[in-house]
Amino acid sequence: MIPTNVLHDNAAIGNEISILHDIHLNTKNIAVYQRGIASLKEGLAKAAQMSIECRVSGTVEEVTLSLGSYFANAPHLGEALLQDILDLLRLFEQVTGVSSFGVVLAKVSTTMCPRFHADHNELRMLCTYYGPGTLWLPDHALDRKAYLSGKGNKNILLDKKNVQQVDTGDVVILKGALYPGATPIVHRSPNIQENNEERILLSIDANESLNLPIRCGYN
User: Fold this and answer.
1) What is the β-pairing status of strands 11-14 and 30-33?
2) According to CATH, what is the number of the domain 11-208?
3) Domain ranges of the chain
4) For the chain, N or C: smaller number of CB within 10 Å?
5) At residue 128, does pLDDT exceed 60?
């Protein structure tokens, strides 16, 4: 959870959707749109009992068709979740200005990225619909040299008390290592495996920033 009375120089945090556009500011490498998803909670609790694994890519129109087809065959996910995902995709299109995307929606039960790291891309949008959210570090709270030299979390972290966590339902945009002139955000997955937890996670990448295959992107 991000306390409302704590400000971090590298983070843009607020309860207005426009805050996500601040990811392009030179001083910011993470933007967090704080929101509630109470209207989705009942459906998500049911969805969490099922298997979810959807990976699609293409333009907004192509992704919309592919997601519509997937949801038609997975009625337990519900129309409200589909609409929210499509709204976030269009929002990400506005923020990035690109026209091709990779989208992953999945239920995960393992800690996919346990080490604090930066993504090898330009921008990524995340939303944890169910379960604990992504962990991230203010720039002053990490030893970036330790991270770059491949050392583990105990060397990267300067103070465990400074670890931040995004709330369930919040929308996050992460600046990666390929964003021009960026100091990328260092973040990791929460420890769901050791805590016997699960997550339903949405990840959206701007495909045009990478000439690489779509990768999982769980964080």
Assistant:
1) parallel
2) 2.60.120
3) 11-208
4) N
5) yes
